[in-house]
Amino acid sequence: MAGTYAVELRNVTKRYNELVAVNNLNLNIDKGEIFGILGPNGSGKSTTLKMLLGLLQPDEGNVNVLGIDSRVDPVGVKRLVGYAPEAPHLYEFLTGIEFLDFIGDIYGMQAEEKRSRINEYLKALQLEGREGDMISSYSEGMKQKIALIAAFLHKPKLLILDEPLNALDPRSARIVKDFLQQLKNQGVTTIMSTHILEIAQAVCDRIGIMYQGKLLALGNMEELRKMASLPNSALEDIFLKLTGTGDIKAVVEELVK
Ligand SMILES: Nc1ncnc2c1ncn2[C@@H]1O[C@H](COP(=O)(O)OP(=O)(O)OP(=O)(O)O)[C@@H](O)[C@H]1O
Ligand SMILES: [Mg+2]
Question: What are the residue ranges spanned by the domains of the chain?
Fold first, then answer.
């Protein structure tokens, strides 16, 4: 039934010419869930996230986000969703504060709330004092922080974060992780792709492992352990076993020959 889940993907297929990037994907994500999408490079994670945002349209199937069909009401979806892309295109000739101001205006935020939220986030992520510098002068991690603040700013109901923590220092990563937990308590849903398996294991309620455009495994840590028949294992071992990349030793031996 539409609207029961935060996100519903029904028989979703996306092709880039001959290449099937997402292959008949079915997935429901509950409201308030923190969901991790894992998978090797090119397995279809970013393509899936972009379809949730309405940035890409599926060739087949239906995508429903917070009860809205993104094909019918793409602006309605964007209003409720915050997105941090994997390689954010920030306006590098703007300063951090100008960019965030601009984002707040796009979402129609009141000036006072916008300012106070921006300042709060800049402080929490230790960007205070650098907000007046041009984005082009920021380090990778600083740019990622700006992209995250831009995603959080308008209090979205659904956060879509494509590899959000890979450039963050440990303190900032911890702050973002704790913040996601707080948002969860307020009913916000987060869907994030990540290659950092410790983060997925620590933060996500459920994890989906994609492989060649399909969902290879889906569940919480306990269920994934069962699926991989690895009762006491960390996510890394489960991931490597399920995605068939367990022959790492042989590959490395070949490399050092
Ligand atoms: N714009 C595009 N045009 C053509 N092919 C594309 C395009 N975007 C993605 N693809 C292809 O679709 C497949 C899935 O790509 P996608 O970016 O969804 O993978 P991913 O799981 O996010 O990978 P990564 O871990 O490297 O970010 C890949 O084979 C990729 O080459
Ligand atoms: Mg990607």
Answer: 7-255
As given in the structure block, the two tokens for residue 160 are: 């879509």
Two structure tokens written together for 9:
């993907």
Q: Please give the Cα distance from 69 to 202 (Å, whole number).
A: 31
| Protein residue with least CA distance to atom 19, ligand 1 | 42
Three-state SS at 63: strand
- Please state which CATH number belongs to domain 7-255: 3.40.50.300
Count the residues in the chain: 257
Mean residue pLDDT across the chain: 91
| Mean pLDDT confidence for 16-23 | 97
Quick check: 151 and 115 in contact, CB under 8 A? no
Please state, in angstroms and as integers, the Cα–Cα distance from residue 47 to each residue in 74, 90, 177, following that order: 16, 20, 24
- Kindly list the protein residues that place their beta carbon closer than 5 angstroms to ligand 2, a single-atom ion: 45-46, 86
Mean pLDDT of 192-210: 91
**pLDDT tens digits, residue range 23-60?**
999 999 999 999 999 999 999 999 999 999 988 999 99
* Closest ligand by atom to 195 CA: 1
**Ligand 1 contacts CB of residue 41 (under 6 A):** yes
